[in-house]
Amino acid sequence: MTQVFVVLSSVFKYIFTAIIYLFIFGIIRMIFLDIRKINTARPKGIPKGMPYLRLVTDKHSLYFDVNPVYKLDKEILIIGRDAECDISIDDLYLSARHVKLYYNEGEWYIVDLKSTNGTYINGIKMGKKQLILDSEDKIRIGQLEFLVVLE
User: Fold this and answer.
1) DSSP conformation class of 3
2) pTM of the full predicted structure?
3) Assigned CATH for 52-149
4) Coil, strand or helix: which one is 145?
5) Residue ranges per domain, the chain?
6) pLDDT tens across 111-151, in order?
7) Edge-to-edge strands, sheet with 107-112
8) Which of 31, 46, 81, 130 is least enclosed by beta carbons within 10 angstroms?
9) Which helix (H) or strand (E) holds 12?
10) For residues 72 and 149, what is the distance between their CA atoms, to the nearest angstrom?
11) Are the beta carbons of 82 and 57 closer than 8 angstroms?
């Protein structure tokens, strides 16, 4: 009877060791994928000095099409699900008119347009106030996260 416990103990020891190694491997893989996604090299077709939004979310995990980069080439941009938005994205978690980005006196601002699921800046839900965007801020709307590049 004691030999059965010795054998079971050895088996569980190896199983738990394997689980710990798989867990550590998973964490390292997630860190690597996060670092790889946030590549700040300027994409082709974006002139130097033009601000843009770079998609951080893995586009292959999404059920809808989304561009990897969106130029901030107008003074006012509306992002949402509506086809008439300046940046129209078919994400069911976006409101028809979700968020407004606008340029005023040398600064880019963001305003949530009373969206259902809210807008998050650097992981914090923004309220009703407009906020000034800084380069490398992260905007999360719906299932998408964008990196703001202003330089």
Assistant:
1) H
2) 0.71
3) 2.60.200.20
4) strand
5) 1-41, 52-149
6) 999 999 999 999 999 988 999 999 999 999 999 999 999 87
7) 87-88, 76-80, 99-104, 107-112, 131-133
8) 31
9) helix 2-37
10) 9
11) no
